[in-house]
Design goal:
- With about 170 residues, the chain is of the alpha+beta class.
- It is built from six helices and four strands; from the N terminus they run ααββααββαα.
- Strands 1-2-3-4 form a four-stranded antiparallel sheet.
- A hairpin with a 2-residue loop joins β1 and β2.
- The longest helix is centred in the N-terminal third of the chain and has 26 residues.
- The two termini are about 20 Å apart.
- About 25% of the residues are buried.
Length: about 170
C-alpha cells in the first residue's frame, strides 16, 4: 500500500500522536548527537552558509530568551505553563476530526515536549542553529533555534495554511 494511502487510513488521533512521538524522538536524538557525539560545545561556530552557523547556545527562557529561568522555582513555573499549553493542545488534537490539524498539533506538541525535556533534564534548552543577517528585519536578524523549534514552526504554519486555504467542509477530510 502506498504511503499516501496508509497515512489517509490513519485516524486523526493516531496521526497526531505519531507526529508528536516522531518529533520528540527526532529532536532528542539530534540533541544527544550534537551534545555527546559531535561535541558541539568543544567546537568553534561552524559556518554552513553566510547566514547560518552551527553553535551551542543554552536558552534558559522561551523564544528569544524571554522570561529567563535560571533558578529551579522559575524553571518549574515555565514547565508548568508549558505543560498546561501542551495539555490544551493535546485535548484539541484528540477532539479534531481533521488529519491536517492533528498532524500540525502533533508537530507542535512533539517540539514542545522536546524543549520541555531539555528544561527538565539539562536546566535549559539546547539550541544549535544560528540564523543571522545584517538586514534590518527586527528580531529575526539573529535567531538561534533547534529541531524542536522547526517542528513547532512547521506545525503552526500547517495550522495557518489549513485555516486560510482549506475550505471548512474539507478540513475534516484532510
Amino acid at each position: 500500500m502506498p504511503l499516501r494511502l496508509k497515512l489517509a487510513a490513519l485516524s486523526p488521533r493516531v496521526l497526531g500522536l505519531s507526529a508528536a512521538l516522531a518529533a520528540l524522538a527526532a529532536d532528542q536524538a539530534h540533541k544527544y548527537w550534537m551534545l555527546h557525539i559531535f561535541d558541539v560545545a568543544a567546537r568553534p561556530p561552524i559556518s554552513l552558509t553566510p547566514f547560518l552557523d552551527i553553535v551551542l547556545s543554552w536558552n534558559f527562557g522561551v523564544s528569544y530568551s524571554l522570561f529567563p529561568a535560571h533558578e529551579t522555582a522559575a524553571r518549574l513555573v515555565l514547565l508548568t505553563v508549558q505543560g498546561a499549553i501542551i495539555a490544551g493542545l493535546a485535548i484539541w488534537m484528540v477532539r479534531t476530526r481533521s488529519r491536517a490539524t492533528a498532524l500540525a498539533l502533533g508537530l507542535v506538541i512533539g517540539g514542545a515536549l522536546g524543549n520541555a525535556a531539555d528544561r527538565m533534564t539539562r536546566g535549559a534548552v539546547a539550541d544549535f542553529f544560528y540564523l543571522h543577517t545584517s538586514l534590518p528585519v527586527g528580531p529575526l536578524a539573529n535567531y538561534v533555534f533547534n529541531l524542536a523549534d522547526v517542528f513547532i514552526t512547521a506545525g503552526v504554519a500547517l495550522l495557518v495554511f489549513e485555516g486560510f486555504f482549506l475550505p471548512q467542509e474539507r478540513r475534516a477530510e484532510s
